[in-house]
Write a structure and sequence with these properties.
This protein is mainly alpha-helical and 244 residues long. It has helices at residues 4-17, 30-51, 53-58, 61-74, 85-95, 106-121, 188-196, 204-214, 221-237; strands spanning 139-142, 146-151, 169-175, 181-186, 202-203, 240-242.
């Protein structure tokens, strides 16, 4: 059973979503309704501009305004939680082709910016790295606050006035023990190293041997030294750490 107040609420929401096609609810004049419309738009726009600052920067004012209005007009959010609106916005961008022709990198950029926000809000923490960790006696695992992602565009370099060329990049986005979200640009080999530690505790020697087998690399001191140095840096950053 739908009560009268629910019908009024739905009419009110429909007006905010589709201003040009829905009349004002009875009892509310246009001037007062405009205040509600502007407050709603400004609230959503501010939230999303903070979550996606680079996208907000590279779009024109009219493009951003149109994108925000279409988002809340046509995307039905599954979550009632305000802090999950950016994820809903990402889903909207994925499911619509708007702006893709002009900004072919926009979905990947949105995913990158959303990842930064998701890790910033994620529950959990990373302990400060212990400089006395034995690299060869401990097993190591990828931090749950780290993600390895491959993109078709250098999303971490995009800014206003910079039209990036298509280029596969590997990035580790992580939150360190100081609660700061950082990123590391990886090559294919270092990305593979991190993915090997994802969800699985491994000895470093076993990782090195698997790399040699998979990439058909001739075992050498230089190869081992170079990749051990990479692993040391990842441990220092809190990206991988000893498994308990």
């Amino acid at each position: 059973m739908v009560h009268e107040f629910q019908k009024i609420q739905q009419h009110f929401a429909d007006r905010i979503r589709h201003k040009d096609n829905v009349s004002c609810p009875i009892g509310i004049d246009n001037a007062r309704m405009q205040v509600y419309e502007e407050c709603f738009f400004n609230g959503i726009s501010e939230l999303l501009s903070n979550a996606f600052p680079v996208i907000n920067e590279i779009l024109t004012g009219s493009e951003w305004e149109s994108l925000i209005k279409n988002f809340y007009a046509f995307h039905h959010c599954k979550s009632p939680l305000f802090y999950e609106v950016p994820q809903e916005f990402l889903e909207y961008l994925i499911n619509t082709n708007s702006l893709i022709e002009k900004y072919p990198f926009i979905i990947e950029l949105a995913h990158y910016e959303w990842m930064e926000l998701a890790l910033d809000l994620a529950v959990g923490e990373v302990s400060k790295p212990n400089e006395e960790i034995n690299l060869y006696k401990n097993k190591f695992i990828l931090s749950p606050l780290a993600e390895v992602v491959a993109y078709n565009y250098p999303v971490h370099k995009i800014k206003k006035g910079n039209n990036p060329k298509k280029e596969i990049v590997f990035i580790c986005i992580y939150r360190n023990y100081e609660y700061k979200v950082k990123f590391i640009e990886l090559n294919q080999l270092s990305a593979r190293i991190l993915l090997m530690f994802k969800g699985k505790a491994l000895y470093i020697n076993n990782v090195m041997q698997e790399l040699i087998n998979d990439f058909k690399i001739i075992k050498s001191e230089k190869f081992l030294r170079t990749n051990i140095d990479v692993i040391k840096k990842l441990i220092a950053c809190g990206v991988i750490y000893p498994s308990t």
